[in-house]
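Weekly sync, protein design subgroup
Attendees: M.S., D.O., the rotation student, P.L. (late)

Item 1: inverse folding check
M.S. brought a backbone from last month's batch and wanted to see whether the design step gives back something sensible before we order anything. D.O. pointed out we never logged the input encoding, so this time it goes straight into the notes. Structure tokens as presented (110 positions):
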């Protein structure tokens, strides 16, 4: 019996584009790991952490597209952003200044 599942070309292009971006991040940071989080109607957030501690994120239009993109990129995916995975993130002066300003009631963008 033939497979009747239809492929959405637009979704496939988005998966491929996100997978390329994830792979490029991984290459630039000596490898990478990630975590996918549902963010409501906006879709899903893909948080990336490089082996060098660099980090970044991407937003996919749906959780399914995000999962397919990380799978296609071949990175390790974590269920949650905690423990050893979160400890790999290295922040710089910009992040610390920004976080301190928010905590002290200052402007988020100094």
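Designed sequence read out in the meeting:
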């Amino acid at each position: 019996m033939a497979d009747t599942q239809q492929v959405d070309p637009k979704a496939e292009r988005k998966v491929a584009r996100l997978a390329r971006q994830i792979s490029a991040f991984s290459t630039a940071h000596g490898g990478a790991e990630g975590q996918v989080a549902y963010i409501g109607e906006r879709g899903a957030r893909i948080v990336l952490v490089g082996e060098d501690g660099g980090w970044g994120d991407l937003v996919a239009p749906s959780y399914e597209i995000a999962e397919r993109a990380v799978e296609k990129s071949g990175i390790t995916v974590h269920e949650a952003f905690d423990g050893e995975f979160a400890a790999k993130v290295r922040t710089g002066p910009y992040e610390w200044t920004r976080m301190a300003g928010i905590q002290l009631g200052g402007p988020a963008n100094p």
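Discussion: The mean pLDDT is 87. Strands lie at 32-38, 44-50, 55-60, 76-78.
Action: P.L. to compare against the previous round before Friday.
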